[in-house]
Specification:
heterodimer; A: mainly alpha; 2 domains; B: alpha+beta; 6-stranded antiparallel β-sheet
């Protein structure tokens, strides 16, 4: 029970919003970039939160790291690569398009195409068929069951 | 002594309800198969008794919470004598064991309602529906009694409890789970109807009409539950996020999407006797996603594979339930679906076709959410890759479906059944289209250089709302305005419900897009007396007070909001510490406005003096929840339509289905 309570509190313990006033960069354009990058990086010790939203110490360290790299002249991609090198792809809230992740990304479009094909075929059939048309053959068991219903 | 008795009686009632559920889950099903009417008749009183027993058990647990009976382990872990009464009550379901008992209570309630209002169902169908429903109850009662018994007693009761998580001590969250569960569990009735129909081997218009009110009811409750949860996150989590694509949120969102699809496909079954086998599959899937949601939330598997591995008992049990019911239903479906032949014929351009499109978009969108939710788990278990799937993925992969859905919706809503002419509908909707496009163009021009999100959201929102108005207007025929107004008031409630719900969707879509596109944020350190200028407002920090609440301590900032030198209102954001739970929380203070919210948060005291203060201007935030409420209201209108009052519909169609026994 205590464990559950702990899990529950971890789940929900995000009491204070993230970015502290002392973290903000003087250059608004660069700060904007830092916020954009932060929104895509996961706070490693939190539950499904970006470092931009999280109040955890580690998130703060990462936010400062991102800003440090930006000030050092890195591009956005270089900053993200730097963080991923250190912490692994787990930090990316938007999974990469590499390897098996392709399945994740193309699952939606592929399912949509299949659904459209099946739906299209169904509509085409409904247009042609009369009420009696294209009845699938019944198995013996189904026929028996149908007879049973019909006999009532 | 009496206190102890009540709890033991509650425990006993729970075990007794399992026995009743087992009887109700077997006798009527055998009776229906053998045509033994006496056996079938067992279902109705059994459903009532089962509900009463579970209600008694739930009542006993509530009593233990209300009287702070610390001989109950669950009360110790989740309550405290100082807690306000409303949270003592909501504490009953603010934990795993109690929430599962609520789950079963609602399950039994729906079963009993099906028994009470199902008097006009054909006797075999009714016996089968109640039997299948009771089998679900058996599974979950076993789950509670074997793995999550809320009535576990402590030999030595402690002096006081450990308190409920302070984040859960909130009116929004107190009523969030009951509504979600009403929705989740309501779909069990649709599932039972689907399985019963497959056993019967018969799906007709009457079936569609019976299933629709239950789907509507579930969908309404899910809409309210999800809305409440999102509203809670908005004002409680301290920075005004309203949707996080968290696995637990997705768990409630997937059944909502599928229920929305089912709602629409059941219309086609009812009106046109088509899409039958697909509708059955949707009904099975809708409850399947409810079970998956329960599994995700209750096993903790998505949060951490390790949390699951350490304590797999519950998760495996629910997975077992999922496997048995989904496996059983889908096998039955595979065997029987072929026998369900469609009757209605329709053209490519017809309301049927667009409803098929609606179903495709909603179902695939739900699957995208599903894949995104379980992908981290799949990747870790099969590939050993630890990765995250967060909001950036979902926003990209999910949003297009909703955009296309919103684009097609007003057209589909107005197309006639069977065979339609696109040109006519386009002509009717041209005004709405031009209006929406010009609004969006105007805003696009005004906001120069910002993302297209705002204008696109405005276009879709305006298109849906004006489309709904045109839809209603088109049903009033010709004549002078007073005659048309009179006629629009007399339209069936289902037509009103449809227009209201569609407009509500538009308002929500616009609210989300507007908030995301035009939010402003200001973060700074403020001392007492300092002012900050955010957009056209001046925020002045007047004071910081230390306040003591019933079960917390609070640091409360007092801020005055000014505009053009005029004092508008005072906001008092707080930072609270709940000593018993040892947890700090942020209580933002929000001035709700029609056009925008002013959202003020006070943070930690800074080392250099002063406090971190965040000001957010959140345009159209309230529109998101207003839209959800309007959507739910549309559902209520539709549900109250005379045609869908279960008994009335059943009486009429029972005769019809008697004449056409099978297809």
């Amino acid at each position: 029970m205590k464990k559950l309570f702990l899990i529950l509190s971890l789940m929900l313990a995000t009491p204070v919003a993230a970015v502290q006033p002392d973290e903000i960069l003087a250059d608004p354009a660069m700060e904007e970039r830092a916020r954009d990058i932060s929104a895509g990086l996961r706070c490693l010790v939190c539950r499904n939160e970006s470092i931009d939203e999280s109040n955890a110490e580690l998130a703060r360290d990462l936010r400062l790291l991102v800003r440090e790299r930006l000030v050092a002249g890195d591009t956005n991609d270089e900053v993200v690569d730097f963080v991923v090198d250190r912490y692994g792809e787990y930090v990316l809230l938007r999974p990469t398009l590499t390897g098996a992740n392709l399945v994740l990304w193309i699952a939606g479009p592929v399912m949509l195409l299949i659904a459209l094909a099946v739906g299209g075929a169904y509509i085409a059939r409904r247009r042609k068929d009369g009420p009696e048309g294209a009845k699938p053959a019944l198995s013996d068991a189904e026929q028996a069951r149908l007879d049973e219903i019909l006999s009532q | 002594m009496i206190r102890g008795m009540i709890i033991e009686l509650g425990h006993f009632a729970l075990i007794l309800s399992l026995a009743v559920a087992i009887v109700q889950g077997t006798v009527p099903l055998i009776g229906a198969h053998k045509r033994w009417y006496g056996w079938m008749a067992v279902a109705e009183p059994a459903a009532t008794i089962q509900f009463l027993l579970v209600a008694a058990s739930f009542g006993a647990l509530t009593y233990a919470f209300v009287t702070s009976d610390f001989s109950l382990q669950l009360v110790v872990a989740n309550s405290h004598t100082d807690k306000p009464m409303i949270y003592k009550i909501s504490g009953v379901w603010g934990n795993h064991e109690g929430s599962m008992l609520l789950w079963v209570l609602i399950l039994a309630l729906f079963g009993a309602m099906a028994a009470w209002f199902g008097g006009n169902l054909p006797p075999t169908l009714r016996a089968r529906v109640l039997g299948v429903q009771s089998l679900i109850a058996v599974a979950f009662l076993l789950f509670i009694i074997l793995t999550s018994n809320p009535f576990t007693r402590l030999e030595v009761p402690p002096f006081n409890g450990q308190d409920l998580n302070p984040l859960l001590q909130d009116p929004g969250l107190a009523f969030h789970p009951p509504f979600l569960y009403l929705g989740y569990v309501g779909l069990s009735i649709c599932f039972s109807f689907a399985v019963a129909a497959l056993i019967e081997g018969r799906v007709d218009a009457a079936w569609g009409r019976w299933v629709r009110p239950w789907t509507l009811l579930s969908w309404i409750c899910l809409s309210i539950g999800i809305g409440l949860g999102s509203w809670w996150a908005y004002y409680e989590l301290g920075w005004g996020g309203f949707w996080f694509w968290d696995p637990v949120e997705n768990a409630s969102f997937m059944p909502w999407l599928i229920a929305a699809a089912l709602l629409h496909s059941a219309i086609v079954v009812e009106k046109r006797e088509s899409l039958k086998s697909w509708t059955i599959l949707l009904a099975i899937m809708a409850f399947g996603f409810s079970l998956i949601g329960t599994f995700i939330v209750r096993s903790g598997v998505i949060t951490s594979v390790h949390a699951f591995a350490n304590d797999p008992e519950r998760g495996v049990f629910i997975l077992g339930i999922l496997a048995v019911f989904m496996g059983g239903a889908l096998t039955l479906y595979a065997a029987r679906a072929g026998a369900l032949t469609a009757k209605g014929v329709f053209g490519v351009v017809s309301r049927e076709s667009l409803l098929v499109m609606n179903n495709i978009l909603l179902a695939v969108a739900a699957l995208v959410v599903f894949v995104g939710t379980i992908w981290p788990l799949v990747a870790e278990v099969t590939l050993g890759r630890k990765l995250s799937v967060g909001p950036p993925f979902f926003n990209m992969a999910f949003t297009p479906f909703m955009v296309v859905l919103a684009l097609l919706l007003p057209i589909g809503a107005m197309l006639p059944w069977k065979r339609a002419k696109m040109g006519r509908v386009f002509l009717q909707l041209s005004g709405a289209f031009v209006l929406s496009l010009s609004l969006a163009a105007l805003v696009w021009a005004m906001q120069t250089g910002r993302s297209a999100l705002g204008p696109v959201g405005l276009f879709l929102g305006a298109w849906l709302v004006s489309g709904a108005v045109v839809d209603l207007a088109s049903r009033t025929g010709r004549g002078d305005i007073t005659a048309r107004l009179r006629r629009v008031m007399r339209l069936p409630r289902a037509d009103w419900g449809k227009a209201i719900a569609h407009a509500g969707l538009g308002i929500t879509i616009f609210g989300i897009a507007g908030l995301m596109a035009w939010e402003q944020e200001d973060i700074r350190v403020m001392n007492i007396g300092d002012t900050a200028i955010v957009d056209d407002l001046t925020i002045r920090m007047d004071d910081v007070e230390q306040v003591r609440g019933p079960n917390y301590f609070s640091t409360m900032g007092v801020f005055t909001i000014l505009k053009d030198g005029q004092e508008l209102y005072t906001l008092r954001p707080e930072k609270r510490v709940y000593p018993v739970a040892a947890m700090p929380t942020t209580e933002a203070d929000i001035h709700n406005g029609f056009w925008r919210d002013v959202y003020l948060v006070i943070g930690d005291a800074q080392e250099s003096g002063g406090f971190a203060v965040r000001t957010y201007l959140k345009p159209f935030a309230n529109w998101i929840w207003a839209g959800s409420i309007i959507m739910a209201l549309g559902g209520v209108f539709s549900l109250s339509d005379r045609r869908y009052r279960v008994a009335a519909g059943a009486r009429k169609t029972a005769k019809a289905s008697g004449a056409v026994p099978a297809e």
